[in-house]
Backbone:
């Protein structure tokens, strides 16, 4: 494992929302670390808490309990003013480029907005110059500077989102489903852009998505979430080569593969649906759908443990493997 | 008996408003044999859904203009049918599963009534209420919804369950042709797997023909017999599943589409996306519609619209493969 200080570390992070029926456990005891220049992929189905996790780490949503550390320093107790200063160092790219941009602002206004708010530069000329540079960095033509978002397609709008996130020179960016609203050919352009920027600027990403092919492509490490908890956390190649948790295995085997030689291998979908995150029962959250569940899986929470070579898995049925082949 | 259940020839559809004309579908032809599944794959705005709506004659009345072409269903020219005859076909012999289960159900009707509605509309042999309700139960069981939930309203169901209800409605009258327009796009991947395997099983059991519309090449590979790749209202490439997935020659757009998806099996450092974007359907480019984005674009591509080049079952609409440019 890397010995450097992680850029982001969260310890037993919880976020519960009060709803009329009780407490909705959106994020329920997550521990993880993201190291510099790495991409942590967060994958799971709708309602698993992946978006809430990303936003809680940036304290756009206040955590219920637990600790968030940025470069070893706890930011959980930071005041609003201190958090505003942190916005220079941690940013977010939102999912939907159609609703996350103010329709009444031009491209250059949108991109310069954060820099004006944070008084990054002293003169208007400097801001104009920085905006033009950012547009070039993310591949937006100069002539679009005075265009409005509705005049642009989804790919270009998402480039604005990327430019906004980059405008304060952050080291860490939460990418919340940044390509999910885009067509595949445009999706590939944005993925390439994000990977190039990571290399050029030395960025660290937390990449939240439901798309397994995308997460494999872009991530160094991947965590799989189910109902607010991490069920498996491993290096990207390792996770896809040797998925250990029954949920991860079900998830991987559910993807329709664009290869006709796989056509005759029967897909056996897992039974049932995700259960309610409101007042969940103690125990493995996946037990109700799990083909291997036994009585031992319920009644107490199943901790995430190392099952060999940094491959973490929260399942009782999985044996440790010291020498993974 | 007819060899083909569905024959579509040279279909052209525009959306006409006072301000502009959108060329949504620009001359597509295909045939569908009984029991076969035909896949149409393409990105947003390629004209996939417009094609599906035209087959059922459900294009928006004021703006949707079917400019030319024929649609033959079981030998009958659909475009010459009266509105009344179309109504007796829709839902009965041809049915559609819409993309978004959240908006294609009536929120104030119990699900069993929504399914019974289709049965009552097509109740040509005078079934009684009890028989219709019995059939409703049967169909719900077919799609895996427990009988105790049949008196629930749509909002009480999850997305996957709602899509099952939509499928139950489409299957209620045992149609010969099922048009599935992105049936799983709104669903999570494990639920998608459940719904897809159910659609496949029901199709085989009921012997239906199917048109599967999707942007996901994985779904095409797992469900279809024949495929067409749609771009800017045209089929730029079509053929059997083998032609498209393992054939050696491809339309540059098809190559771009495959290059854009991250591969789960092989580690790739960079994707090979298609540059640029889909052309404005109100101002389609001269010559080949793909020419502004095409990495192999030649002079002729900007001037002359390419014709279909046929090699057996495999058809490619591209100058790279036509005899004239090479000969």
Residues:
């Amino acid at each position: 494992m890397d010995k450097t200080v992680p850029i982001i570390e969260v310890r037993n992070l919880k976020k519960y929302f009060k709803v009329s029926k009780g407490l909705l456990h959106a994020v329920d005891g997550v521990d993880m670390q993201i190291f510099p220049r790495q991409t942590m992929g967060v994958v799971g189905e709708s309602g698993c808490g992946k978006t809430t996790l990303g936003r809680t780490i940036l304290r756009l949503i206040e955590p219920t309990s637990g600790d968030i550390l940025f470069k070893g320093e706890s930011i959980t107790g930071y005041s609003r003013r201190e958090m505003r200063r942190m916005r220079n160092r941690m940013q977010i790219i939102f999912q939907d480029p159609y609703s996350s941009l103010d329709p009444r602002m031009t491209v250059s206004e949108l991109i310069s907005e954060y820099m004006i708010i944070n008084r990054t530069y002293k003169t208007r000329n400097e801001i104009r110059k920085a905006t033009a540079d950012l547009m070039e960095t993310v591949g937006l033509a100069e002539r679009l500077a005075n265009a409005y978002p509705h005049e642009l397609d989804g790919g270009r709008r998402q480039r604005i989102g990327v430019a906004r996130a980059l405008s304060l020179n952050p080291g860490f960016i939460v990418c919340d489903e940044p390509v999910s609203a885009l067509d595949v050919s445009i999706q590939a352009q944005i993925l390439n852009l994000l990977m190039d920027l990571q290399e050029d600027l030395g960025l660290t990403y937390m990449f939240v998505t439901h798309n397994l092919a995308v997460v494999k492509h872009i991530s160094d490490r991947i965590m799989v979430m189910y109902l607010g908890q991490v069920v498996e956390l491993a290096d990207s190649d390792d996770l896809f080569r040797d998925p250990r948790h029954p949920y991860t295995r079900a998830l991987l085997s559910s993807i329709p593969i664009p290869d006709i030689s796989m056509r005759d291998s029967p897909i056996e979908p897992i039974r049932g649906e995700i259960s309610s995150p409101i007042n969940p029962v103690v125990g493995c959250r996946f037990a109700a759908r799990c083909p291997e569940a036994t009585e031992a899986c319920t009644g107490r929470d199943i901790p995430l443990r190392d099952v060999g070579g940094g491959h973490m898995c929260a399942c009782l049925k999985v044996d440790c493997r010291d020498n993974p082949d | 008996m007819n060899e083909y259940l569905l024959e579509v020839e040279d279909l052209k559809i525009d959306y006409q408003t006072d301000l502009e004309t959108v060329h949504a579908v620009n001359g597509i032809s295909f045939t569908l044999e009984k029991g076969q599944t035909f896949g149409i794959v393409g990105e947003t705005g390629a004209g996939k859904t417009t094609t599906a709506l035209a087959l059922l004659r459900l294009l928006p009345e004021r703006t949707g203009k079917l400019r030319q072409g024929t649609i033959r269903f079981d030998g009958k020219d659909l475009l010459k049918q009266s509105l009344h005859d179309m109504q007796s076909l829709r839902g009965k012999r041809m049915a559609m599963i819409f993309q978004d289960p959240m908006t294609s159900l009536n929120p104030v009707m119990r699900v069993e009534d929504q399914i019974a509605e289709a049965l009552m509309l097509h109740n040509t042999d005078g079934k009684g209420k009890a028989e219709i309700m019995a059939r409703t139960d049967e169909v719900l069981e077919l799609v895996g919804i427990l009988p105790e939930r049949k008196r629930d309203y749509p909002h009480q169901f999850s997305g996957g369950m709602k899509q099952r209800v939509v499928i139950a409605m489409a299957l209620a009258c045992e149609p010969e042709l099922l048009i599935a327009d992105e049936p799983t796009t709104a669903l999570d991947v494990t639920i998608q797997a459940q719904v897809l395997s159910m659609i496949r099983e029901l199709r085989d059991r009921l012997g239906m023909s199917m048109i599967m519309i999707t942007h996901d090449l994985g779904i095409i590979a797992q469900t279809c017999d024949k495929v067409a790749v749609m771009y800017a209202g045209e089929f730029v490439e079509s053929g059997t599943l083998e032609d498209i997935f393992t054939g050696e020659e491809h339309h540059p757009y098809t190559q771009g589409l495959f290059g854009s998806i991250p591969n789960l099996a092989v580690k790739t450092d960079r994707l090979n996306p298609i540059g640029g974007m889909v052309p404005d359907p109100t101002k389609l480019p001269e010559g080949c519609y793909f020419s502004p984005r095409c990495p192999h674009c030649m002079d002729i591509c900007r001037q002359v619209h390419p014709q279909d080049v046929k090699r057996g079952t495999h058809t490619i609409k591209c100058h790279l493969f036509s005899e004239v440019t090479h000969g």
